[in-house]
Amino acid sequence: MQEILQQIKSGQLSPIYFLHGEESYFIDVITEAIENGILQETEKSFNQDLFYGKEVTVKQIVDACTQYPMMAPKRVVIVKEAQNIRDIKLLDKYVANPVPSTVLCIAYKNKKLDNRSAFAKSLKKNSVVFESKKMYDNQLPSYVSQLVKKAGRTIDAQAANLVAEYIGSDLSTLHNEMEKVFLEVEKGASISGDVIQKQIGISKDFNVFELQSALASKNHSKVFRIGRYFQENPKKNPMVMIVGTLFRFFSKVWVVSQNQGMNDTVLGKSIGVYNSFFMREYRTAARNFSSVSVEKVLQLLKEYDLKSKGVDNRSFNENKLLIELLGKILIS
To answer: What is the pLDDT of residues 40-56, one digit of tens each?
Structure first.
């Protein structure tokens, strides 16, 4: 991605940028750079077109691309949500012979292009094709650390893990939340777990990580104390977030339970946990939940995730569901 952004900044432009893949964040970043980094504001009125996949035809796109710029070095044509275009492969003729004075950006989000198709092969000849890959959970702490380093700050492993676990793989949300942190922490300073908790809005004593810890040690009173706090503050602690975080946690616990004899360094690397403090928690959970129990917990989490979304649950009550789920996990 950085190479493409540098090309745009330096004016070394490709006639076509085809952006596809499951991670929308990187596609949005490149699209925004093309939208705001090629033409001056005064040039955009006559030389920049913005289309959306549901509302545009291939003919309209080609017509816009084949016009010549007016008092500007380039024409820019941007197609957002291009995955919704009917017969996008009909762009093949334009792709084979693009207009050099036009920059066409196609944002094909949440889907991958079939690389075996003739259209894909044609794109590779005359376009910059960028696949935006979904980031795995075990890559997130390292990504947070790199993001912080790029912003001129430092962060310890425990705080990076806290960000990754709490926010998850929604990179747009992650970047937005970290921007809040950067506003409060000067360049050159270190970002601690306390700063993360304060700026991202994680309660020090009542958060999903404390819930994980309480479940790992089967501390019944603490589990229900946190559960009741979540009941009273549902907007800050939506069930879908809690269930998702617990599912990631118990998925890793299952791996640990299957590899009890493996040392922490190797095992931690396999599950994306690089801090001994967190590994102790996973070890504790693996002692208190057998492999069979962990499998039951994972099934419960899938079941209650659907229930929280109203599936097979006409009398939906999120507060009651959470306490019910926690009780079942503890006796698994």
So the answer is: 999 999 999 999 999 99
Range of the domain at 38: 2-131
The CATH number linked to 226 is 1.20.272.10
**pLDDT tens sequence across 160-214:** 888 887 787 889 989 999 999 999 999 999 998 888 888 887 777 788 888 999 9
Total domain count, the chain: 3
Can you give the three-state secondary structure of the chain, one letter per residue? CHHHHHHHHHCCCCCEEEEEECCHHHHHHHHHHHHHHCCCHHHHHHHEEEEEHHHCCHHHHHHHHCCCCCCCCCEEEEEECHHHCCCHHHHHHHHHCCCCCEEEEEEEECECCCCCCHHHHHHHHHCEEEECCCCCHHHHHHHHHHHHHHCCCEECHHHHHHHHHHHCCCHHHHHHHHHHHHHHCCCCCEECHHHHHHHHCCCCCCCHHHHHHHHHCCCHHHHHHHHHHHHHCCCCCCHHHHHHHHHHHHHHHHHHHHCCCCCHHHHHHHHCCCCHHHHHHHHHHHHHCCHHHHHHHHHHHHHHHHHHCCCCCCCCCHHHHHHHHHHHHHCC
- The answer on 167 and 117 residing in a single domain is no
